[in-house]
Amino acid sequence: MRTIKWIIPLMLVVLLSSCASSEYISETNNESPYEGKQVIRVSNALNLSDLIERLPGTRMEYYGGRPEILVRGGLPLYVIDGNRVGHSYAAAANLVNVNDIASVEVLKSPTETLVYGRDAAFGVIVIRTRVS
After folding, report:
1. Are 58 and 51 in contact (CB under 8 A)?
2. Given 3-state DSSP classes, what are the helix, strand and coil percentages for the chain, each rounded to the nearest 5?
3. Closest to 104 (Cα-Cα) out of 17, 31, 22
4. Cα 8–chain centre separation
5. Which of 37, 40, 64, 85 places its Cα 20 to 30 Å from the Cα of 103?
């Protein structure tokens, strides 16, 4: 009877962890934009927030029933394939298909966000797609 108490929670953890998994990879190819960075690959992501929530330094909160991603306590700038989308998670999620996403990166330091100016005060979420 004692073994049943810990087997059921263990099976539940294994089942849930197999639904969506992530892994840290390190690429050292000279042609790769990820050289020297930790990149997270997420398999079976259902939406954009599944990808962004796993990145260090991001947090999801709900305002009026709408999800918003926060970086450093504020709304970040979304950039999809080099095009500024704005500060709305909903706008970014509507413009990109989660299956077409090649990478998602969060820029937080002032030197990384310098190119984007004042819009990047709370960071930048850069989304690259496979079709670009």
Report:
1. no
2. 35, 35, 35
3. 22
4. 31
5. 64
Give dist(CA 129, CA 103) in Å, integer.
Answer: 7
How high is the pLDDT of residue 74?
92
Backbone angles phi, psi at 117, to 5 degrees: 70, -150
Q: Domains plus CATH for the chain? A: 2-129 (2.170.130)
Q: HEC string of 55-83? A: CCCEEEEEECCEEEEEECCECCEEEECCE
- In this prediction, residues 36-40 reach a mean pLDDT of 59
Confidence check: pLDDT of 15 > 80 = no
Average pLDDT over residues 87-111: 91
User: In this structure, which amino acid lies at residue 22?
Assistant: S
Distance CA 21, CA 9 (A): 19
Q: Which residue, among 81, 128, 125, 84, has the nearest Cα to 103 in the 3D structure?
A: 128
Residue given tokens 């926060």 in the structure block = 70
pLDDT at 5: 65
